[in-house]
Amino acid sequence: MNKKNKCFTLGSDYKNVLGLFSILSLSILTAMLLMLVTDLSMADISQVRAQSSDSGSEGVSDSGSEGVSDSGSEGVSDSGSEGVKDFVANGHVNSTIYTLTGNWAATGKWALAVDDGKVTSFNTDMVWNNGTAGHTHEFRNFVADNDNIVLGPDRTVSIKGVMDVGSNRAISWTGIPAEIFIDKGKIITVSLDDEGTNKHFGGQSIHGTVDAITQCGLKPGPEMEMPPTSC
Fold first, then answer.
1. What does the pLDDT read at residue 70?
2. Cβ distance 120 to 106 under 8 Å?
3. What is the CATH number for 205?
4. Domain-embedded: residue 163
5. Within a domain: residue 130?
6. pLDDT at 73 over 50
7. Residue 222 located in a structural domain
8. Read out DSSP for 39-75?
9. Chain-wide mean pLDDT for the chain?
10. What is d(CA 58, CA 52) in angstroms, rounded to the nearest whole number?
11. Are residues 99 and 41 in the same domain?
């Protein structure tokens, strides 16, 4: 090979190497750019997710759990658990006293009225019979120990005080300690001091049923509002 052809060959090889180097450099640069773009995109996605997570949890905390606490449990406490201070109740006596001389069954009616937490009346009329003899008993003039009587949300109330006990329409004992207990608006139990009544009732309570409990009031409200019924 002559000198001219040899120089031509070396020049062609140099150009080929330079071309390959350019292509390789461009490929590397392209790959680096793609990696940079990918890293930036992933960073943006992570930031968006973090912001979404923060705004979501804050929303649940403010409008979720706090909302339930304010309008749920507190609302029930404010409107329901305080009970009622104005109501009337009535029902029937259906009880039995067990004694050594026989079993005495009682039938009759009772009525209770409470106005603004104060017992305004409690009257009971009963007929007692053991199958061979009979007599009557009456409860009158009940005075509660306090003037803050409240009928609970489940219609349960306990009232302690003193009252007069009659026999055959005449007062036999006055100022006898007693308790009126209405259980869930269904059962009434009246307990009397055994010693104060000469153990006449054998230390046993008198039971009956509740026919109705109605919220009521004696005082008219604002803007011509009237109570549904009088206590």
1. 37
2. no
3. 2.40.160
4. yes
5. yes
6. no
7. no
8. HHHHHHHHHHHHHHHHHHHHHHIIIIIHHHIIIIIHH
9. 78
10. 10
11. no
Q: What are 80-122's pLDDT values in tens digits?
A: 457 899 999 999 999 999 998 889 999 999 999 999 999 999 9
| Residue 228, CA distances (Å) to 19, 80, 115, 122, 125 in order | 103, 19, 13, 20, 26
Both 69 and 98 in a single domain?
no
Stretch 194-205: mean pLDDT, rounded?
96
Residue 68 is encoded by which pair of tokens?
């339930």
Contact yes or no for 78/219 (Cβ under 8 A): no
What pTM was estimated for this model as a whole?
0.63
Residue 151's identity, in one-letter code, is L
Residues 118 and 42 in one domain: no
200-217 pLDDT, tens digit each = 999 999 999 999 999 887
DSSP per residue over 216-229, as a string? --SS--STT---SS
Domain around 21: 1-79
Nearest CA to 90 out of 211, 228, 176, 194 is that of: 211
Spatial distance between the Cα atoms of 115 and 205, rounded to a whole number of angstroms = 26
